[in-house]
Amino acid sequence: MQSAVKLKPKEEEVHVRCPKMSATRYRRFLKLCEEWPRDEAKKARDLGTFLRQRVASAFREGENTQISDPEKCDHMYESLVRINDNFYRQRFPRVRDTSFTGVTVEECKLLLSGNVQQMDEEKKGLWKTLMERFSKSPEDVPEKAPEK
């Protein structure tokens, strides 16, 4: 379906792709960005925000952007669609919605949010418990006697 014209010798092949296909890919990525949820609590660490930035940088010229590797672009798009559609969550359902720490989904979201001060005030007990469980301060580690 794609028309390609060779412009240089085989070792430096450059293809001129059909602009219609680039426009289609661009529109598909824009639609995916619109559908992708954005978590305002995470601010700059949100996957939806990161995806929007990457699409903007990859398609700087919008529909006129020339894609160097269309197969890779299509593969990336399909992978992101599967993640957005919860394909793997439905295919491999979880028995419980907790992790090995015993933290619930809501508590985990709170821990991962950017509002650390708010979290400290609201869930100070949980935060201290997790910090004690997963990090040891130098005071907790017994000192070794010098070797002779």
UniProtKB/TrEMBL annotation:
Pfam families hit by this protein = UQCC2_CBP6
| Record's keyword terms, sorted | Mitochondrion, Mitochondrion nucleoid, Transit peptide
Q: Name one GO biological process term.
A: mitochondrial respiratory chain complex III assembly
Quick one: where is this thing mainly located? mitochondrion
Please give the GO cellular component terms listed in this UniProt entry: mitochondrial nucleoid
| Protein location | Mitochondrion matrix, Mitochondrion nucleoid
What protein name applies here? Mitochondrial nucleoid factor 1
Q: What is the native source organism of this protein?
A: Perca fluviatilis
